[in-house]
Amino acid sequence: MTVTRHIPSHIAQSILAHLADHADRFGRHAFPSVPTLAKDVRCSDRTVQRHLRWLEEHGFIRRSRNLSRVSRIPAHKRPIVYEISLDDHARSRFAEEYREHAGAGAGDTVDAGAVTAAPSKPPCEPSPLSPEGDSSPKRERPRTPSGTEATAFLIAFSDILRREGIAADRSRRSDRRAAIRLMAAHGAQPALDMAAWVASDGFWCGKMLNVRSLERRWEELRLARRHERAKRRTTPAPQGTAAAIGADTAMKHPAVLVSSSTVARCPVYGYRTFPAAGADRTGEAQRHLDGIINVEECPLCSHDDRNRPLHGGSRGDRQPMPSGVTAPPMGQTRGRW
User: Fold this and answer.
1) pLDDT above 60 (res 175)
2) Is the per-residue pLDDT at 91 higher than 60?
3) Less Cβ around it within 10 Å: N or C end of the chain?
């Protein structure tokens, strides 16, 4: 295809040629960065952005929705993937799509350095194995939200921040474009639900003051929200249940290993909260383990019922000794409990 008669600028011709070098044989999957193009063409970044915008406006290229080659790159670092028109029919279609997209943004100009379009399913490609004239249904392209829907989204977003007492930034044209991309990628209601969660979160609320920041941090926020839901599912049982009472008791009366003349390192529950101090607390624990006092009169057994099976250094539910090992008589050998 000869493009010299259609592109008056030699810089735009060079940029298009370098995009074609990065594309496949169908003119797709070209995603060189602006600095790379500027270095190849020997001009500034702003000049490359301006000529990319001109090529896109006249239908020579378009922003591709097939992001399969860059899907592993995080959304906030993902480059723009371009698709090159290979004939006049494709160029007319690309130009018409650009005008429709510009009209949806209420006359906004498209910035070549903006965030890439929302990821969607790749378009259907002709298969060499399918016969000609295959009447299989074609995939429908996702609908681009209108400017009215973007305005309603911005109003709802501002109401969410206002209810949480957050002073939001003033809406800009870039916020409108970000709202269109968010609604196209995730839907209006899921995006507003995410905004409501971020506004109510004490850590993330200060990092989302506009729609642009919500779009830029979407993947980060999604992972944080999923982590919070998983953490909420593993929280202790509600207060008042048997499991919560047992966990609360174990937290208030943790076990401490205490040794006496008859047993070594035996757990004593409620040792730190026992109403005694210093040597008196240790002495009471040792008398409890040695069985010097009766279990009914033992203050540690009265303080925590879990100490009753351990009174006197014995347990009723002790596991049997391994084969070949004999238990020493109590009181003769100082062993580990």
Assistant:
1) yes
2) yes
3) N
CB environment 102-136: b (16+ within 10 A), e (fewer): eebbeebeeebeebbbbbeeeeeeeeeeeeeeeee
Mean pLDDT of 207-232: 86
Q: What is the sign of the dihedral through the CA atoms of 47, 53, 56 and 57?
A: negative
DSSP symbols for 69-87:
GGTTS-GGGPPPPEEE--S
Please, which residues bridge with residue 63 across strands? 82
Q: Where are the alpha helices (DSSP H) in 66-206?
A: 88-104, 147-163, 173-186, 188-200
The Cα 58–Cα 13 span in angstroms is: 13
Cα angle 223, 181, 59 (rounded to 5 degrees) comes to: 135
Termini Cα distance of the chain: 88
What is the chain's Cα-based Rg? Answer: 35
Quick count: other Cβ atoms within 10 Å of Cβ 217? Answer: 18
Residue 257 has pLDDT above 70, yes or no: yes
Residue recorded with tokens 């057994």: 301
Top pLDDT among 90 and 248 is at 90
CB 116 within 8 A of CB 63: yes
Question: Rounded distance, CA 337 to CA 327, Å?
Answer: 11
**C-alpha dihedral, 177 to 178 to 181 to 184, nearest 10°:** -100
* Residue 276 pLDDT exceeds 70: no
In whole angstroms, give the CA distance from residue 209 to residue 168. 5
Residues 307 and 316 sit within 8 Å (Cβ to Cβ): no
The structure's pTM equals 0.33
Helix 173-186 to helix 188-200 angle, to the nearest 10 degrees? 110
